[in-house]
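User: My notes are a mess, but here's the protein and zinc ion's SMILES. Can you give me a structure?
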Amino acid sequence: MKLVDVHIHLDFPEYAKDLDKVLKKAEESGVKAVIANGVHKESNRSVLEIAKKFRVVKPALGFYPTHTWEFTEEEVDEELDFIRKNKEKVAIGEVGLDYKYPEDEKYKDRKTSIQKQFFEKIIGISEKTKKPLIIHSRKAELDVIEMLESSSLKNPVLHCFSGKKKLMQRAADKGWYFSIPVSVIKSQQFQDMTNYVNLSKLLTETDGPYMAPTPGERNVPENVCLAIKKIGEIKKMEEIEVANNIFMNYQRLFL
Ligand SMILES: [Zn+2]
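Assistant: No problem, the inputs look usable. Here's the predicted complex:
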């Protein structure tokens, strides 16, 4: 079975000690491609290095929304330029909006506007470079959808989308992609999404090291097979057929 994990953080410390083993095991389990997503400057450099070392790994370069205010505007713009010019990336991610930072109400407006400014700029880069965005949208789903709607982007990927059903349908009706996390095995919301979205617009992801099927454990790429199985149940299709379709979606979108 051909498996693909379009969203994982291989540069995170959880994989530092045994990344070669993690990827070997993934390949032995049928994983043909793993998209490592960067979350800031240093992370993007690590992602590129990992992708150079392991053929199964494809790099996505990004800036996690809640990191955007930790750097000066100049530093962030420099990184945007780096992302734009880089030729190895198969996607731009992880990027997006995240409004779940309740601990400091005081700077909330400033932080929201910094993220939105950044997201606007990165949408522009995706429009120019034609590289798809892999988008995080926690508690900010409506703003993400509205900003994408006012762009010319045809193929954004909504990663782990947890917005309301109406918003999910609005995005699906536009033909956007959704990457289904392993938690679809338990989550009614992701099951409803799988049911609604056309198979030709579905992808699979782990968001490793996070969101492991067993809480507290580290997530690994081959766990996407659990999502494939569940998608098969929901779509009433053979697992192999689901896997092949999702792999074709990956190839069409990223290669
Ligand atoms: Zn992520």
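The longest strand covers residues 91-98.
User: Great, I'll file this with my notes.
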